């Protein structure tokens, strides 16, 4: 009997018919990649059916070759021959469940192969399955059992042309080849799963970074929308309120107020259209000739902002204590403009009729101070005063912190409301 027909080793080529790849990842991701099925799906795929069919036919073929060789060399009794065929047939049929019970099937086949030659093919396929789906310690134990069964078989049925030590050596060699082959397939599957898991993780992290960047950009746009529209709409409300309470005003005053309302409404719509346009802009549109973003306001635009408030009837004084008209960096100047804008808007909402003082001070290297203070409101609060969302100062504080500055607000001992911001102004 040749080693390829040995009950514990034969059919090493049967392992090549089992290269199926797992479809799931849980087995690999465990801390102990041991007795797991490498994520095999519960139902067989067409590929699994093809692989199982080839493994079954290969086991039957090897078993028949071993059975024929045993008849030629030993001529066992007919009862033994019948038991050999029945045992080999049952072992080959059991291979259809080799994925769910690989260890049990391999142990039973190894024990049967010690006396039945037709079980050789099923034992080889079962050993390969264990090496693929179980950790090294388990595969080594099953391989040792197969080697011992092969040695026992050659002790019961010695070959005429080969000595017992030589037969045992060849059996051990084939057992080692089948086991190492199965372990190689297992390592390759684990590598594929690891690479696939890393690819999924990289894609997920990339998607999270994109989503975070989009979220931050939308938050910035929302702050801009609040700052701009709250200012414009508060101006509209002041002028509309003046027309409501002075229906007998001179025609020139009514026309002037109506003109301011129209201009403010037009500007508010323009600002809203620009913000919506930014939200609708897709990545890469700038490269195809889309309109550039409108220039952002700077510290120099504070005077225009104060003039608009004065035209709306507010009593606003501006004290610019800077040594010269040097402009701070663009980000600092834009943040300073938003601080003054939010302060004037809050004064119109909550202190209607009160005087407001805007103070600017600072220089390069020492930072920029912005202070907006207003007296308590004149009279009782109007029942139809401009509503507020209560989030303006929260967003403003975040904007100032992102610039590297500090924001303070609250009532002074004299009852005035004071909004103070310090912004860095590097030399």
From TrEMBL:
Its EC number is 2.7.13.3. GO terms for molecular function: ATP binding; phosphorelay sensor kinase activity; protein dimerization activity. It is an enzyme of class 2 (transferase). GO terms for cellular component: membrane. Residues 217-282 form the Signal transduction histidine kinase subgroup 3 dimerisation and phosphoacceptor domain. InterPro entries: HATPase_C_sf, Sensor_HK_TwoCompSys, Sig_transdc_His_kin_sub3_dim/P. Residues 1-21 are annotated as: Disordered. Residues 1-10 have a biased composition (Low complexity). Coiled coil: none annotated. Keywords: ATP-binding, Kinase, Membrane, Nucleotide-binding, Phosphoprotein, Transferase, Transmembrane, Transmembrane helix, Two-component regulatory system. This is histidine kinase. It comes from Haloactinopolyspora alba. The lineage of its organism: Bacteria, Bacillati, Actinomycetota, Actinomycetes, Jiangellales.
